[in-house]
Amino acid sequence: MFSRPGRSSASDIPIGDPDAPRPRRDPRQLRRLLAFTRPYRGLFIVGLLATLVASGLNLIFPLLFGRLIDASFLRVGSTDTGPLDRTVLALLGIFALSSLFGAAQSYLLSRVGAGVVADLRRALFSHLLTLSPRFFGDHKTGDLTSRLTADVGTVQTVTSTALAQLAAQSVSLIGAVILLVLTSFKLSLLTLAVIPVVIGTAFTIGRRIRRVSREVQDAVAAANASAEEAISGVRVVQSFTAENVERGRYGQGVLASFLAALRRAQLQALMGGVMSFLTFGALAVVLWYGGRQVMAGDLSPGNLVTFLIYALQVGGTVAALTGIFNQFQEALGASGRIFELLDERSDLPTSDTPRPLARAEGQVEFRDVAFAYGGAPVLRGLKVAVPAGQVVALVGPSGAGKTTFVNLIPRFWDVTGGSLRVDGRDVRDYPLESLRAQVGLVPQETLLFSGTVRENILYGRPDASPQEVEAAAQAANADEFVRAFEHGYDTVVGERGVKLSGGQRQRIAIARAILKDPRILILDEATSALDNESEALVQAALERLMRGRTTFVIAHRLSTIRNADRILVMNAGRIVEDGTHAELMDVGGLYRDLYEMQFRQEQEAQAELV
To answer: Structure pTM?
Structure first.
């Protein structure tokens, strides 16, 4: 009934692990990368043609320049300047056309490259959003954002100008070699003897550059991950005066990327030096041998100049092809990191015949549910049926499995045994999007996005009207404090809602959930971090939110769940008690022990205040 997508070999390698074996760089990655140019094939083809035309025009220049030399030096004393004038005009025309086509190809291919990068980033980000929480728990945010930004940027040149330049330089190389041979066969043999040496050197050093480029990308990603963690937890860092620890950790990452970049620069400098020596050394020998031929009358000065320019073009083309080869090597390393992510598959199985859940009634049933994480059992043999509209409280000691219990309902995790049903059907029968649309979550640590209050509330239902947003805020006891802000609902809350208090953030989150209007509601210790005044306001808002919904409440203060329709007491991953507050207090057991212990602690705390 269910099919689990297969994982590629690249996906089996821990992302961001510097000690993990690297996947083999498959040239097919380049074909996958170039597939992103398909929407721009028209622009790309026109840009490629413009590049080829510009390259062809550049091959005419040495011929005309040679004729200009002969027209100037072989006609000394002549008053007929016609050949010289016509040659100069032809040169100006060639330069003008070459510049025109060069400008066209530069713009068109840059447009293609920018489009490909935008599409690739969108595709990668969209794919990341489909992965399960397990994936994000195993990988650092900084490493993922590095791949989304730096690595995608690295491949931009290859998906635009590099491919066209490869074609253009190939045309230039072939054309220049043919014209070299036609100009002087003997000099051509001498010149072409160097080319295999140059190409072999480029490939040898290029392979090492590709490997080191991957090391640079990995080191930058690791440093970014360290910075991301430190910045997101800056209050913890500062409270423990751990600034030096984080400086050292980030500094080590930067040093590793610097050393890798230094190795890459050394290899690139080595390649540049070797290429330069081979190219210009060969030209010096050609100039020496060609000069002897001119002195012997076997070659005209103009033909020697023409040959030298073609030889320079050959050398420049080989050097350019070497640079393009290096770009492709770097792109293969970066694309490998990108496709590792694109090849990742969610560990949540999908139904072959999913059934949309348009509007749930809210019935939830656990049928002998078990769950294990990393081989360690967390939940065991859960059997409980919750009718629609019932308020169920989950209590128990820390580590009992309460949060895991509620996280199974929206399929943040999947059961590893038994089945979980909503409205009588296994949750795996429903598309994830339609299932989660029926589930609202108000967690202990509310995450607000760095937009306005209105935008954060609209996150629950983006098509809601302004009146519906304000009504949701009123129901959540948030309207009064929001209107007190200078900009009201257009007030920017800052990253993670840092400009708001804890109680204000919770009420915005409740308004967001009210606007979503879910049939199943999960409250995961939604008031545990609040003071008494804020808790009272939030609790009143939560009571409005729970009306008519199937609600699962995890509460740290047992006094707040006395009116729950049902209380499930969990311990060591099992439900050990089930009943109302009065029933569980009468029976005696873990619930009464927990309640009485908490009651005594609260009494002692109040006595100390007095």
So the answer is: 0.64
